[in-house]
């Protein structure tokens, strides 16, 4: 199996790239926009802005699940195992946070009193992961998620699958979130969703965070096929053109002004 994979991130209007709290990652790619042979694992995560260090948690969470799923793909077939990966990310967060606090103190920027409650509560993020691999000449894929980051399976201009949400109405202001201080697998399992499928050569997959996902479903529900215009940009991996396109969609009121992270997996 081979796939061309690209990763793009755009911050909400008025924010810098460094302030973007959505994250995307792919294995085995060392950099975005390249052709990959063999199994491909992708993950996207949307940090909840209401929590402190949400972007850092989204990055650590998605990197952890990408690393573990790529080496242990059966994680995507069990809600308990997928929840356990999020707990592992929480364990890594404890170490990362201790280093972050120490770094702040070493640079005469200690944690302020008003930051302490949110640090104690933890950061929050959604999570979506998928793996693509060959079985007897066919491309099989599995995906698992928590929250409202979505995967879209497209063939030509037809949407074959939308996971885990299938309508704009399904998006709410309170999606399920993984908390950086959660060590309770059972609590997370209740919100994990799983799916799997088989793809043909030439099929496309878009994994993205909620603002773009909701916009895509809005286009589908309005009997429009947004895939060609979107994938022309994502396939090229041109961040500037993609950012301009996102700004244009926001300006019409069709897309919510929020951070965007997207992975495009093109099965050629």
From TrEMBL:
Domain of life, per lineage: Bacteria
Residue stretches making up the PPM-type phosphatase domain: 37-245
Protein name: Protein phosphatase 2C-like protein
InterPro entries cross-referenced by the UniProt entry: PPM-type-like_dom_sf, PPM-type_phosphatase-like_dom
One Pfam family this sequence matches: PP2C_2
Family matches, as SUPFAM superfamilies: PP2C-like (SSF81606)
Organism in which the protein naturally occurs: Actinocrispum wychmicini
Gene3D superfamilies found in the cross-reference section: PPM-type phosphatase domain
